[in-house]
């Protein structure tokens, strides 16, 4: 398709499915804000965030209505995607209202593997090369998702609505789990209880400790990618979202979408980064190994459920 064709008038009445699922998620979490209002640090800013999102989505839709074309319709997906960045820290605001369960998941790792893989992995693999490789894979998470969505929007436009729905609905399903299942992850939990305690197989419950403590283990910086990952974590990471791993989960959904796009170059170019990412989640101590394993299987489930749901909704609309 030529650039000129992207700006050819082409009005499509329906909302993107990404826009619809975003509105549903905002409504649900607004109700959750009301339930937890007294316990939240700044509930009003959470409400303002939703008002800004509604205004941004409304503005983009209004611009599209003034000059309906494919290019402006594609741009309407930007606010929902940016919302993922704003709503990730909110999973901490919600889940920290409940007692944390890290002692259970650390105990599962100990039972299954006889150790704490998050503590052992980076002591076995110590070279700068592998440290940078795993951190590079972990950081590639954002670019893998972006590349796949852009590919659908520009090269597989007829399937872009479904791909966007599967992607965003899966993300929101992970977020919903995080909001009701408080697991901080090794980098926060082992900092709280002490690595020496964890190494002996003792995992005390910490209750509501992370409501007021967000300190995490500081990794050894060995190169540019470990610095990039640390910088990203310092800006946006919270004691939340450890189980199941959304890094493994959403990168798996992304790989499934890439495979479904029937573009072997997209899929196979991302494969090495995907494998490094899956290993990197444990290597950088962001997740217990059980988190990453369950992230993989949860992603397959979410991919199937959201694909089925999309077909069901659109089949009903066509009747």
Number of strands: 0
**Which ranges are low-confidence, i.e. pLDDT below 50, for 5 or more consecutive residues?**
none
Q: N- to C-terminal separation?
A: 31 Å
Strand content: under 5%
What letter string, H or E per element, gives the SSE order?
HHHHHHHHHHHHHHHH
Helix content: over 70%
Q: Give the count of helical stretches.
A: 16
Biggest sheet, open or closed, and with what strands and sense? none
Protein structure class: mainly alpha
Mean pLDDT: 94
> Into how many domains do the coordinates divide?
1
Radius of gyration: 21 Å
Overall body shape: globular
SSE layout:
Elements: H1 3-6, H2 17-35, H3 43-66, H4 70-75, H5 78-95, H6 102-113, H7 117-124, H8 128-139, H9 141-155, H10 157-180, H11 186-193, H12 195-199, H13 224-236, H14 246-260, H15 264-283, H16 289-318
């Amino acid at each position: 398709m030529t650039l000129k064709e992207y700006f050819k008038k082409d009005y499509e009445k329906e909302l993107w499915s990404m826009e619809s699922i975003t509105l549903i998620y905002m409504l649900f979490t607004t109700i959750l804000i009301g339930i937890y209002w007294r316990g939240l640090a700044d509930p009003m800013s959470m409400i303002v965030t939703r008002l800004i999102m509604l205004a941004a989505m409304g503005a983009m839709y209004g611009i599209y209505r003034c000059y309906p074309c494919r290019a402006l319709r594609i741009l309407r997906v930007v606010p929902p995607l940016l919302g993922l960045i704003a709503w990730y820290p909110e999973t901490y605001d919600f889940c920290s209202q409940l007692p944390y369960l890290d002692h259970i998941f650390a105990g599962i790792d100990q039972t299954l593997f006889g150790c704490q893989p998050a503590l052992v992995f980076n002591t076995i693999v110590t070279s700068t090369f592998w440290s940078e490789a795993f951190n590079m894979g972990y950081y590639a998470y954002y670019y893998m998702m972006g590349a796949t969505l852009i590919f659908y929007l520009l090269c597989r436009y007829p399937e872009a609505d479904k791909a966007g729905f599967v992607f965003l609905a899966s993300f929101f399903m992970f977020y919903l789990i995080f909001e009701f299942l408080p697991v901080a992850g090794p980098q926060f939990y082992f900092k709280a209880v002490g690595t020496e305690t964890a190494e002996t197989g003792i995992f005390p419950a910490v209750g509501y400790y992370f409501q007021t403590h967000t300190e995490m283990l500081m990794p050894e910086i060995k190169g540019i990618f470990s610095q990039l990952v640390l910088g990203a974590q310092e800006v946006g990471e919270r004691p939340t979202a450890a189980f199941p791993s959304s890094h493994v989960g959403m990168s798996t959904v992304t790989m499934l979408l890439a495979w479904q796009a029937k573009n072997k170059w997209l899929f196979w170019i991302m494969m090495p980064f995907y494998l490094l990412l899956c290993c990197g989640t444990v290597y950088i101590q962001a997740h217990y190994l059980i988190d990453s394993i369950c992230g993989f299987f949860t992603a397959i489930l979410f991919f199937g459920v959201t694909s089925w749901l999309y077909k069901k909704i659109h089949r009903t609309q066509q009747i």
